[in-house]
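[Automated response] Your request has been received and processed.

Submitted sequence:
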Amino acid sequence: MEDKKKKNINRRDFLKVLGAGTVVSAAALAGCKPKKQFASAGNLTGEVPTDKMTYRVNPHSGDSVSLLGYGCMRWPLRQRADGRGDEVDQDTVNELVDYAIAHGVNYFDTSPAYVRGWSESATGIALSRHPREKYFIATKMSNFAEQTWSRQASLDIYYKSMRELQVDYIDYYLLHGIGMNGMEAFNGRFIDNGILDFLLKEREAGRIRNLGFSYHGDIAVYDHLLAMEDIQWDFAQIQLNYIDLEHATGRNTNAEYLYDELVKKNVPAVIMEPLLGGRLGRLNTVAQAPLRQLRPEDTPATWAFRYAGTPEKVLTVLSGMVYMEHLQENVRTYSPLDPLTEQEYRALEETTEIFLNNDFIPCTECQYCMPCPYGINIPGIFSHYNRVLNERRMPEDKTDSEYRKNRRRYLIGYDRSVPKLRQANHCISCGICKSECPQRIPIPAEMERIDKFVENLKNENVTEIG
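Generated structure:
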């Protein structure tokens, strides 16, 4: 089956598959007094519970996993003391990890490829300060580049992860991004070099407690892995949110199909991109309207996380929480989970229709395209564009009474969010980034498009973007 948008059940049947969502509460670590905090939308939402986190049980290992998982792709950075580049802000990482564990979060997902290669080390430093039994660590065989496909290079990646994370076993180990370049790349990365056989033996030896994979790309590879009769996968990581349910783009497949296939094979799902790169947390007032009618106090992020956490076979939902207020809000959402009702699903369908009518660039800010060899801040440029579009303040029509105000807001915001030397006009269209983008965004073409738009704004000669 090659249709990446394929599905074999209708929406109503899919909602039945999702189920009501089993809620299990258990005591978390003690010693952290709850405080009244503000959610990211600025609403006072009460105390952050320390003992009400929802947990799901992995049927293959018996692990009781927090429904909120910590995605370690976006750890905060700071300037080095000597002024020579960036480094991970380890103090902030430690603070976030400590707070997460104290409030019941026990699943932490990283990769050798995250945060410019620094994520595993920073995550290992933060977690090693806690008893090993208090957390599950997930990392990946991120042997994307062809020069890392050899057996020795892949083994080096595996053993380096152990050292960086300061562990002698890994709870959840993934074949990273299967399908990104088709079956030939999958065979080169994992089969021809014997690495999959090696990882299976590591699972037998207990140095890998759960073995799974994350998916982007060619659906034939996904189907192939699930059809392997001699392998029982302990979990799989897929992109699921209420947009990707039926409207996946780029190197993704409709979550309706992906989730249903996991259910058939009794493979728990780990969810990535519940906010679609943050875009579902920044809905405009029109898209929010159907949701506010039912739960006026809930933020768009709360809706998205409730959606991702409701399916019964979801083991954990990953969130790359850089700010404490985001961590606090997500802990509240899952402490405990209030599963979605059919009426709320219908409201999200309305929101989906509104969202899809906007001309967003489907960037999830995953940073796979970074660093750009010419210093372009690709995610920052797309983020600014999407944010202005979402706020319905795009300066496209000079006859609009708000045009001059919106024009000024766009240009000033662009300079503030993206330094001038890292803006789109410095892109030389080398194309190096294109093959790295999981969403298959034609990045050089989009850079050229935004650059022309910005130049037109500066010259007050705006043409419609599109």
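Summary generated for your ticket: The first strand starts at residue 36 and ends at 38. Residues 443-458 form the longest helix (16 residues).
If you did not submit this request, please reply to this message.
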